Each structure stands twice: as C-alpha cells, then as structure tokens.
Amino acid sequence: MYTPIFLFVFTLRAFLGETEAASQHVNKDLASSGHYNARFHVYEEQPYGIDFTYHNYEQMSQFLRTTSLRFQNLTALYSIGKSVKGRDLWVMVVSSSPYEHMIGKPDVKYVANIHGNEAVGRELMLHLIHSLVTNYGTEPYITWLLDNTRIHILPSMNPDGFEVSKEGYCEGGQGRYNARGFDLNRNFPDYFKQNNKKSQPETEAVKEWVSKIQFVLSGSLHGGALVASYPFDNTPNSRICRSAPLCAVFQSYTSAPSISPDDDVFRHLSLIYSRNHGSMYQGLPCSPSQPGFKNGITNGAQWYPLTGGMQDFNYVWNGCMEITLELSCCKYPPASDLQFYWDENRAALIKFLAEAHRGIRGFVVDENGNPIERASIKVKSRDVSFLTTKYGEFWRILLPGAYKLEVYANGYLPREIEFRVVEQHPTSFNVTLLRANRHPGDEEPGVNFYNGNRDHVNRDHVIHFRPHSSGTNTASEANGGIFSSLSNGFNSFVSNWFG
Ligand SMILES: [Zn+2]
Predict the structure, then answer these.
(1) How big is the CA angle at 179 (ends 178 and 180), to the nearest 5 degrees?
(2) Which residues form the Peptidase M14 domain (predicted)?
(3) Average pLDDT over residues 38-51
(4) CA 87, 462, 213, 260: dihedral to nearest 10 degrees?
(5) C-alpha–C-alpha distance, residues 437 and 488, integer Å
(6) What pLDDT does 80 receive?
C-alpha cells in the first residue's frame, strides 16, 4: 500500500520533476501546430496513439508523460528509482483510482525488459497502457478491470541494457545485463541458495517497491522462448545452467521440477496466459534444439534452475504470485513483427490480470472493527505466509475447494477459519481476532502464542516460506472451536470475466 509519504514522493517526482520537460514538449508542439489555444489543449486536439516501432528511453518516457497528462483520471506516472546510468525506472498505474489504493481491491503489476535485449515485452506494455486507457468506458471488461484493480506497469526494468541492444538480434547477451554487467534476474535474494551477487540499483528499486505495495499478482515479461514459467525457479539440489540453450543440452540432468506449495494455482495462472495467447498453448519448440512445453507452460526449475530470480523472490518474500512470461522466440525481432506480437498477447495480458479476483479477500480486524496491520496469514498446508496491509486487507488466489486460513498477530489469539472457494466469484470474509489478554484462561504461564510477526520489521529480509513449519499449528488448533465460513457474493459481475 502507499503510505502517504510514498505517494507524495512519487507524485512529486512525476509532476514536478517532469513538468518542465512536458511543457517543453508542449511548446515544441505549439510551434508546429497552428491551432493551439490553451496550454494542455494541445494533448486533446492531437491524436493519441502508439505506433508499432521500438521506443528508446526518451521516446518511452515521452509516451508515458503524454499519457499521464492526457488521462489524468486513469493514470499516474511514478519512478521507483534510477538505473546505473541514471535513467528513471518508470511505473505507470492504470486504474480508475490511479493515485490511491482502493481499499479491499487488489494491486497487480507487470515488469518487462528486466533483460535489456528482450524487447517485445517492453513495447507490449506501452500498447497495453494505450489499450487500457482508450477502451475504458467503452469495453465492459476493461472498464470493470480498471474499476476494481490497480495495474502497475514497469515497461523497462533495465533501460540501460535496452539502449545498447540491437534490433534484429534474436539471441546473444548484448544488452541483457545492466550497465555494470549484472543479470538482474539473478540478482534477488534466493530462498534455496545464498546469492552472493552484489545487489544492483535496479534490483534494490524493485525490492523497495514490492515491499511497499502488497501486489497480489504479477507477470515478468521476457523473450527468447515461448512459454509461461512458474515457481520455483530454483531447487535445493540443482545444477546451475546459465542459459536456456545450454540447459536444453543437459536437459536430462535438469528435468526435476521444484514444486511450490501453490503449484496448482501457478499452473492455473500459467494456463490462463497460454490459453489466451495466440499460439503459446501449442507448446512448440522455438527451434529443433530447444525444448517444447506441454500446453505452453513449465515449472521454472524443470526447464532450467536458476538462483536469484525475481519470481521466486516475489512469491517467497512477499506472497505475490508472479510468473515469468516468455513471449517471443526472437529476443529483439524487427519492429515490423510488433503488431503480430501485440495481436498474440493482448487478450492474455488482460485476462491474466483479472485472476487477481479469484480466491479469497477480506480484512483482519480487532473486536472493535479496527484493522490489524501485519497480521500473518497462511492457507493451511501452503506454507508461504503473507501479511495484512495497513488497512488489514488480505487476498489469496486459490482454486475452487475447501481450505483453512491460519491468522496470527502479536497480542491476539490466533485463529483458524474454514472457508470455501467457488469458481463464480471471490470468497470475501473478515477475520476478527480477540486480544489475548482479555481471556485470562488463556494466559496461563507457559502458553506461547505464535509470534511470527515479531521480527517482521523489514519485509525485505524476512523469509515467509517455511516448508517444515508443522509445529506452528498447535495454538490455532487449540482455538479451533470458532470457525466461520462466509461466502459473500462480492460482485456477481466478476464471474463473467474468468476465462
Ligand atoms: Zn529474460
């Protein structure tokens, strides 16, 4: 969630730092267009569009600024930090509430171009932004999505790498790395292995970003293959392959999947993308030497294990369901192919984001109805826990079925809640925690309440994934007499949008 300061800083950067450049642009346009009247009218009078060419950093920044000025009620532009070479890492929010988190509604994100020479995703993000803002109010699906979701789009996590990449280069590493030669998708903390790579400014910016906003769902966009890949990327006992082609050679050694507790959900999310994509579901290999993928999806480690990837980090550290989308066999195809890639991906990019509305959502509150922040939540037998927001909100993407939710917060009696998830709409319920000290019978010496939140001061450094934490259930089972199961018809309109 935004803290007010966080929002303020971003807003200030977007609108103080860039206003000068934007007004220069206006003045330039003024000189060439004869019908200019008022300062910002020029944006309304000129056609708004995005062509199928590659946009370098300046052109991309210009498009984002133009969009933010033209669609002030639907977009907000902020920078999460700077690259090694000082380029802003722009994020555009697209939502009917661009400046404020909508309480109870999920935030989702796309991150593209983490490998600077994988250029298709970067351009697709600009077209996605354009498509969302120009279809709001006329296309019911998009209108519903923007009314109920805040979509954060980082078109380029590695703008320095992109600037030294070459159009038409389908393979190779030029531009893949940041300006100091680091692979940013090997630069995150890793649950399975120690990652000794020096953390880069781009990585730090993303880590801070995801620590401040509880993203529910995320896609990381890549190129060089055609597949949706899901956690885990790493495994406790793996050969480390450094490139997909190399790993294909050694595939017999690297074919063991690394199964996460939410494997069913990750497979589902990946299939949503591949089925709504023009051709991914066919699972055809990019070349005879590359592997094919059944239904266009794969477990990350089963394809090839890697240490320090972003998707495992999102999931394990922040409870955010991120998958990796490989969108083109050629990493940097000719611009003349971009229309084709947009046509193949448009439906999938939009349908995937709507999956944030599947599963459960609600609030953790005290007995007076006040939100409890940083309560620790876990779906039983899925040992990746996550924390409530400052408003006490929680979300979890789950497939239809019966589950138990375990909720812990310092100073409160832990609680276990049974609930069901149905296909048609998200299950919505609130969890009320009672203060531990109001129940003297529970305060006998020697009773240890779960205190998993005590050290969660800095989420960046807390590992929530506890594969062997069976012992933590004891307290909640003792409290198991109080079950509640509520399935509210949150919004029956939602049911129309699942693909
Ligand atoms: Zn990549």
Answers:
(1) 90
(2) 53-356
(3) 66
(4) 100
(5) 32
(6) 98
Average pLDDT score over residue span 9-19: 38
Q: What's the residue count for the chain?
A: 499
Going from the Cα of 177 to the center of ligand 1, the distance in angstroms, rounded, reads 10
- pLDDT value, residue 37: 42
Q: pLDDT over 70 for what percent of the chain?
A: 75
Rounded-to-integer distance, Cα 349 and Cα 280, Å: 13
Q: At a CB cut-off of 8 Å and minimum separation 6, what does 481 contact?
A: none
Residue pair 372/352 in contact by the 8 Å Cβ criterion: no
d(CA 291, CA 286): 8
Q: Nearest Cα to 185, choosing from 112, 249, 83? A: 112
Residue 8 CA to residue 299 CA, distance in Å, equals: 39
Q: Is the pLDDT of residue 422 over 80?
A: yes
Q: Which residue has the tokens 């927001």?
A: 389
Eight-class DSSP state of 42: H
Where do the DSSP E strands lie in 115-261?
Answer: 150-154, 215-222, 225-230
Which of 35-39, 361-365, 444-448 shows the highest mean pLDDT?
361-365
25 has a pLDDT exceeding 60: no
Say how far apart CA 56 and CA 161 lie, in whole Å. Answer: 11
Q: Could you give phi then psi for residue 10, rounded to 5 degrees?
A: -65, -45
Q: Is 436 exposed, middle or buried (0-12, 13-18, 19+ CB in 10 A)?
A: middle
Distance from the alpha carbon of residue 386 to the mean position of ligand 1, in angstroms: 27
- 174 close to 165: Cβ distance less than 8 angstroms: yes
Residue 396 β-bridge partners:
360
Under DSSP, is residue 364 helix (H, G, I), strand (E, B) or coil?
Answer: strand
CA of 231 to the centre of ligand 1 (A): 15
Residues involved in catalysis: 326
Long-range contact pairs involving 167-170 (C-beta distance under 8 Å, separation at least 24):
167/54, 167/119, 167/332, 167/333, 167/334, 167/335, 168/332, 168/333, 168/334, 169/117, 169/331, 169/332, 170/224, 170/329, 170/330, 170/331, 170/332, 170/333
Contact yes or no for 150/97 (Cβ under 8 A): yes
Dist. CA 175 → ligand 1 center (Å)? 11
* Cβ contact 200:263 at 8 Å: no
Integer Cα distance of 185 and 190 in angstroms: 11
Centre of ligand 1 from the C-alpha of residue 213, in Å = 24
216-265: pLDDT as tens digits? 999 999 999 999 999 999 998 655 555 666 555 554 455 789 999 999 99
Q: Confirm if 267 and 297 have CB atoms less than 8 A apart.
A: yes
